[in-house]
Amino acid sequence: MNNFSFQAGTNYVFGKDKHKKIGELVKPYASKILLVYGGGSIKRNGIYDDVVASLKANNIEFVELSGIQANPRYEKVQEGIALLRKENFGLILAVGGGSVIDTSKAIALATKTDDVWNFYTNGGEPETAIPVATILTIPAAGSEVSPDSVITYQGRKLGYSTEKFRPVVSVVNPDIFMTLPKNQIANGVTDMMSHIFERYFTQTEHTDLIDSLCEATLKTIMRNATLLMKAPKNYDAWAEVSLGGSFAHNGFLGCGRKQDWGCHGMEHELSAQDEKVAHGAGLAVLTPNWMRYVYKENPRMFFQFATNVMDIKPERDMDKTINAGIDKLQQFFVSIGQPTTLRELGFNENSPLEEMAKKGAGDGFLGNFKPLYWQDVLAIYKASL
Amino acid sequence: MNNFSFQAGTNYVFGKDKHKKIGELVKPYASKILLVYGGGSIKRNGIYDDVVASLKANNIEFVELSGIQANPRYEKVQEGIALLRKENFGLILAVGGGSVIDTSKAIALATKTDDVWNFYTNGGEPETAIPVATILTIPAAGSEVSPDSVITYQGRKLGYSTEKFRPVVSVVNPDIFMTLPKNQIANGVTDMMSHIFERYFTQTEHTDLIDSLCEATLKTIMRNATLLMKAPKNYDAWAEVSLGGSFAHNGFLGCGRKQDWGCHGMEHELSAQDEKVAHGAGLAVLTPNWMRYVYKENPRMFFQFATNVMDIKPERDMDKTINAGIDKLQQFFVSIGQPTTLRELGFNENSPLEEMAKKGAGDGFLGNFKPLYWQDVLAIYKASL
């Protein structure tokens, strides 16, 4: 196990009706807030009215920024910053999924500068940031508990992380997820599983506890995702999946180990190339092919995955066991409606795969389990066609 | 799953040499601190010198309070409060195990009152408390990440919890644990396992994720405890056990479920009766007998324990499977040197078991899985003789 530090102080408020308490929860931070959300779904399902009622009951003024879309764009961040220049917000409340939360985090950086894109391109640590609170409407990105944000601008989809992004309050109410369409359930489940895979597959030795916590979380998410595909209004299954999705990405499952993040890096190039490509769908295609490409770097880890997560009976032939595990994972993705090929996502031999691979890997490499230079990324893209 | 809120913001700093950074870690909180520790072991193993060097290097003044013993007493808390009245400490640094940390937490309550014992007897919420930081020297109590403290006074061993007790910084360095005697390893391991049992055995339905995280943590602790019994200087095994001990008690494993805490309540009466009784040893005796006494209230949960944690092959005869699981747990305790009977701890038919049972259960009951009235507690004490 490697040395590590871990601190995740989000006040995580879970369960039925909890979003109706948002006014009380954010009141210690602010009397005027920026309320950020996506399209009209929270107006249709009543969440918006509940939030407004709770804010008003607690005498919290708010200004709205809406219309955030999937693969959130910097232009919306700039709109938020313009609002910030007019008013003094003590907190930004994101009511939405990862895109809305990530946009809110980006806006939160604009206390001393308008150019927050600079953090995404050049890094550095902000002196201050506005506190962010969230009411989650799509369990997937884990942004409700994470220090991460991903924003798209000028054809680049870039991530930036700072502990100042960690939300101070996050409300997760499984009732809110019951009307999500099946493709969003599938994409969310795939994304949270990927957040665990990116941490689980490591070359670090002696990682027993976190390994087994990763395995337990993956199995719980898969079992309950299968229930949701049959009954999307199953509260208990949503409770397990959404709690699992948060635990997948608050960082604890990465403690003491070198993490990978190759699949996320490769997928970001797919969505950057065509923003209609859902992050989860891209991951579902790439992950099994990444596994087949890299497993020989440390077969023990993939043997453990096959037997402990995918319940493959261990055989003396290690490769056979490993490949059975990867195949079974791919079958799981298919069972929840995910594609298996990039072709299904609109890519083919004429797509600029080499250009995408070079943009993704840059002069260096993606991932860690096996460092993926652009040639490796291209090989995985081609194997995924 | 029940509704819940969870917030655990301790800056958890893990790994080799990390205690040498304590000055930097506490500097944001204070320029003068109270340094609390137990006997001379930290002077013998060099930890004291490392801590003092780091405090001095960061210009942090400190006053010392030492001599804290197991089953910590209120008299030492009062000594600490007296020091507090003379100096203005911005933080209390506990270098020790649960007793030292729990004493420090109790002292931390004395910002507005000298009578902190009142919180232990009558509850209530303190307006303020001094921040506590820890360097752990015995992984067991989980107090390095918990909102809990247990203090003994006038023949009563009472717990009090407030989020203000949650340490702001905790350093866990497995190298520090290598010289612990085997009985302390065994008692620590038993205590951390009990912290999970008290949460795991529940009547709450649909608790998949947390169930499986409990099971994973229990198995990791047991497997690595067995390694430590053979090789107490195995860094990796200590890393797993100590991280598991913290995760066992930061509260996450209790989220969304009704918890029990009957065994802890029953054990506190043993140590209150005879302070030579180690908390872990008492728990090792009581836990299997508690299990046998209560499992029929919800056999499914104990069947799950037997098969998922103790690796018992499930048989059609549910009771047989369950009892095999409980027996195997007891064998594990024996394998790490724990007793199986209260007699080995100095109790017998002439001990005031009825009085102890009545003191433990009061006018109500202990636990939740099956409410334990004093007659039940007495029956478990007698079955444990």
DSSP strand tally of chain A: 8
Sheet-strand content of chain A, in percent, reads: 5-15%
Structural class of chain A: alpha/beta
Quaternary state of this entry equals: homodimer
Identify the strand order in the major beta sheet of chain A.
Answer: 1-8-5-4-2-3
Most strands sheet of chain A:
6 strands, parallel
Task: Please report the two chains with the greatest interface, counting residues with C-beta closer than 8 angstroms to the partner's C-beta.
Answer: A-B, 39 and 39 residues
Average of per-residue pLDDT values of chain A:
97
Helical coverage of chain A, percent range: 40-55%
- Give the SSE order of chain A as H and E letters: EHEHHEHEHHEEEEHHHHHHHHH
Per the principal axes of the C-alpha atoms, what is the gross shape of chain A? globular
Total of DSSP H or I helical runs spanning 4+ residues of chain A:
15
**Sequence stretches where pLDDT stays below 50 over 5 or more residues of chain A:** none
List descriptors.
homodimer; 385 residues; alpha/beta; six-stranded parallel β-sheet; two-stranded antiparallel sheet; 15 helices; 47% helix; 13% strand
In short:
The structure is a homodimer of 385-residue chains. Chain A is an alpha/beta fold.
Characterization of this structure:
The structure is a homodimer of 385-residue chains. By secondary structure, the first copy, chain A, is α/β, with parallel strands linked by helices. Helix content of chain A is 47%, strand content 13%. Chain A has helices at residues 22-26, 41-44, 47-57, 74-86, 98-108, 117-122, 182-200, 208-230, 235-247, 262-273, 279-294, 299-309, 318-335, 353-361, 374-384; strands spanning 4-14, 32-37, 61-65, 91-96, 132-136, 148-153, 156-161, 169-172. In chain A, strands 1-8-5-4-2-3 form a 6-stranded parallel sheet, sandwiched between helices. In chain A, a hairpin with a 2-residue loop joins β6 and β7 (156-161). At the A-B interface, β1, α8 and α9 of A face β1, α8 and α9 of B.
